[in-house]
Amino acid sequence: MIRIGPAGIPLSCKERTTVDGIIYTRCLGLSAMEIRFARSFVGEEEAKEIKKVAKKTDVALYVHAPYYINLAGNKNNVEMSRKKIEKTMHIGHLMGARIATTHLGFYGSLSKKETLKRIVKNLRDIRNAALEEGVEILLGLETMGKKEVFGSIDEIVEVCRRVSGTVPVLDMGHIHSRCLGCLREKEDFQRIFDKLECLSLSHYLIHLTGVKYNSEGELYHIPLKKGDMPVVKLMECILENDYDVTIISESPVVEHDAVYAQILLDRAMEMVK
Ligand SMILES: [Zn+2]
Questions:
Q1: pLDDT for 211-246, tens place per residue?
Q2: Where are the domains positioned within the chain?
Q3: CA 198/CA 28 separation, integer angstroms
């Protein structure tokens, strides 16, 4: 199954609550939504209400932890990051969200190997604490677009191999930026999925946006049509393999590009037939 939806409450939704955002998302013909805890978290009661509405409208929910996270930093960084991730998992669990996505951290002055080691250790602690609390939600580890940030596709796969309960979040715009625009053909997208084979996933969470980048990687997000990543090739790859995916639009024109992605998917479907 392929679900597509916006990151956050759609921009054109007049009412600014998450519940209204979910209903509006369904009205646009979309079937997924990522709720981002960028500035604040929703409360426990609201989370339970959101779960009911999402179930009724058949909109699959995902949550995203606050952006500034560093699981490879000093004690304070790690403590603060842990709190944010654990709270995201807890509220996500109450909402019935499938995956709680998070960023992981920076290399700083550390080697890539040491950064990975610290992140793995801290993720295991977070995972164990969640299990003890009865919090059942997968932790999604996002591929990052800037070269100074931990999160190349290979690093994410390695961490997922080592920490149970974690899955990769394929941010295609970030992957494309980090490899300086290497996603051109269907085969290029296939190579990304092939890298995940060792994880035996039955579902893939994908973030989608156009990106502007330079030699250091990602600069900022732009609408899909303005970017140079051929989204239709991604759709062909998904359809040919019959992958079960959820695509979240992180474009600056959020729901417009979610609907546009749906159109590209429908077009690719015609071609595969
Ligand atoms: Zn993210």
A1: 999 999 999 999 999 999 999 999 999 999 999 999
A2: 2-272
A3: 36
Q: What DSSP state is assigned to residue 139? A: E
β-strands 138-142, 60-64 pairing: unpaired
As a CATH number, domain 2-272 is: 3.20.20.150
- Ligand 1 centroid from CA 143, angstroms: 8
Give the strand order in the sheet containing 99-102: 2-6, 245-249, 204-208, 166-171, 138-142, 99-102, 60-64, 32-36
Q: How far is the CA of 197 from the centre of ligand 1 (A)?
A: 23
Q: How far is the CA of 70 from the centre of ligand 1 (A)?
A: 13
25-57 pLDDT per residue, tens: 999 999 999 999 988 899 999 999 999 999 999
How far apart (Å, rounded) are the C-alpha atoms in residues 251 and 86? 27
The SS3 of residue 250 is coil
Q: Count other C-beta atoms under 10 Å from residue 161's C-beta.
A: 12
Question: How many Å lie between the centroid of ligand 1 and the Cα of residue 144?
Answer: 8
Give the per-residue pLDDT at 31: 97
Residue 88 alpha carbon to ligand 1 centre in Å = 13
CA of residue 64 to ligand 1 center, whole Å: 7
Distance CA(204)–CA(59), nearest Å, equals: 16
Q: How confident is the model at residue 273 (pLDDT cuts 50, 70, 90)?
A: low
